[in-house]
Structure formats: structure tokens, C-alpha cells
Protein: EAL domain-containing protein
Organism: Psychrosphaera ytuae
Amino acid sequence: RVKISGRNSALIFDHLMDDITSDQLNIESELVAAISNRELVVFYQPVYHTQHHSISGFEALVRWQSPVRGLVPPDQFIPIAEQNGLIRQLDFYVLEQALIKAEEWRQQGVLKGRIAVNISSINFQQADFVEQVSQLVNKVNGDCNFIELELTETAMMKGADLVSKNIDSLKNMGFSIALDDFGTGYSSLLHLRQFNIDKVKIDRSFTKEIELSTQDRNITSVIIQLANALSIEVVAEGVENETQAYILHVMGCFLLQGYLVSRPLPEAQLMMFLEKEIEYLKKVTEKAES
Ligand code: C2E
Ligand code: MG
Ligand code: MG
Ligand code: MG
């Protein structure tokens, strides 16, 4: 192992930076090919309703199945796609897939609730975003009533009038709107009042140590009460264990997303998951109710 110290450390750091920069360049050019080679795959993570004891929706999460790199998680290429404009094709590809799958699953009788699609704020802030979405929906003859669009608070930071108008247009088309990673952005309360949002997704950073941290528990509780008071649905992200599920259920958050329910799955595995009895989840939530 190389000891990084003194004069050498700067040199080693330089080489490291060179590697990182050239790897970013590689990803950038590979990504262009990846989109046309259909190497992007969509995984789906189910959301569980602890009062209904059933799956109540799914989130579409993109992965890059690269022949050289293997399965690449979105955190490693979304930021690059956002820098070089590829994010437009990427988000629209995932939305197209979701529209097609929603219709397929509905016909098969396995669609529960909506499929949620993440929309980069870069796309949402384009003047023609709603028009582009509308064209795609027409192209695949999709039904917006089966799709939820997930925005982050960064998407709300442009002109309030435009944001408000876009959200209302999308809702008129039949989409529902969720505010993702809630609690990590700016002026959350104002956004809830200003915009016609259907759902907030409590960021994983609050759920992560909810059983250990009184502070995280209190913040989460306030978000849940706020959402309930405004008749906005609330989902907790990143629920990994039964204690977290129990605490959230008792606090009045009944929609849970996380590894406890299921990891994001490729379509074939999701179908197997849906067929399987999810008895252990029923037990967890029945225990919480009694
Ligand atoms: P997100 O929208 O907040 O999605 C939730 C992330 O949490 C996903 O990471 C999911 O795999 C992960 N997760 C779910 N349950 C658990 C859990 O119990 N524990 C832990 N540790 N993690 C959990 P993923 O799939 O790596 O995606 C990361 C982010 O990439 C997403 O965060 C979203 O911001 C972005 N992303 C993914 N797909 C798309 C897309 O199609 N378009 C855009 N613009 N962004 C996307
Ligand atoms: Mg999301
Ligand atoms: Mg999130
Ligand atoms: Mg996130």
C-alpha cells in the first residue's frame, strides 16, 4: 500500500484526479451509446400500505447495464447526464417505459396504484416540458392516471407561477405529483402551500436512524402531521427494519418504501414478488395495530 505523505501526496492526488476526470469522460461517451444500445434498464421498487396490507404503488429506478462496467447505479451517471443534457432522453425513456408497463400490468391485473417516475429538475424547468410529456403520452397511447411524477424541491426553485402552472397542467392530464427527498431541500413549507402536491416522500436520511434518534423521530412526526393536516399523502423512504416500520405506522405514516418491503427489482423478479404471499409484512403491521 502506498503511504500518502508529504511531497508525494500532491502527486498521487493529481494522478487520482486525472483518473476520475478521464473516467467521467468515458462514462459520458459510453452513456450516449448506452441509450441507443438500450443498455438502460428500469427496476421497480414496490411501496407497501401498512393499513391495507397491500402493495400500493411502485417507483421506477433506472440502472445502466453496461457490458464493460456491469450494473451501474444511477448516482454514478445521473449527475453526468444532467451536465451534458442526456438527462432529457434518459428521463423520457424511463417515463415511456413506465407508461407502457403500467398498461401491460393493468391488463395482467398486477398493477397496484401508480408507477412513480423521477423527473430531474433540469427537465421540469424546460419551458416545453409539459408539451414534451404530452407528445410522449400520445405517442405510446399511455394513461397518465397510472403515473406519478416525482419532483425535488430544486424543481420548485424557478418562478413560482411557471412551476404552479406546469404542476396544474400535469395534474389535469391525470398525473399525480410527489415531492421527493422531502426535508432535504429549501422552504418545504412554502412549496406545500403554493403548489398542488399530492404526496411527500420523507427522505431516507430521516428514516435511517429513526429508532435511535429522538430528533429524527420528532422531525419525521412533524412532517407526517403536517402532511395529514394538509391532506397530502406521505411515504417514508428507506425503511429497512421492522422497528422503523412500526414507529412510522404508529406515527400515522402508512406508506412504506424500503428494503424491508423489497429492493428495487427487475420486472421479472417483481412479478414473482407480487405473486408471493407477503405474510411477514402482514404480521409486522398487524402487530403494530393491536
Ligand atoms: P430516489 O428517487 O430518492 O430513490 C430512492 C433511492 O433509495 C433508490 O436508490 C433506492 O434504491 C434507494 N432505496 C430504497 N429503499 C432503500 C432502503 O431501504 N435502504 C437504502 N439504503 N436505500 C434504499 P437508487 O435506485 O440508487 O437511485 C438513486 C437516485 O437516483 C434516486 O433517488 C433518484 O434521485 C435518482 N434516479 C433514479 N432513477 C432516476 C430516473 O429515471 N431519472 C432521474 N432523473 N433520477 C433518477
Ligand atoms: Mg424518487
Ligand atoms: Mg427519494
Ligand atoms: Mg433520494
Q: What stands out?
A: The CA atoms of residues 225 and 235 lie 12 Å apart. The beta strands are 40-49, 54-66, 70-72, 114-118, 147-151, 176-182, 199-202, 233-236, 255-256. The chain has twelve helices and nine strands.
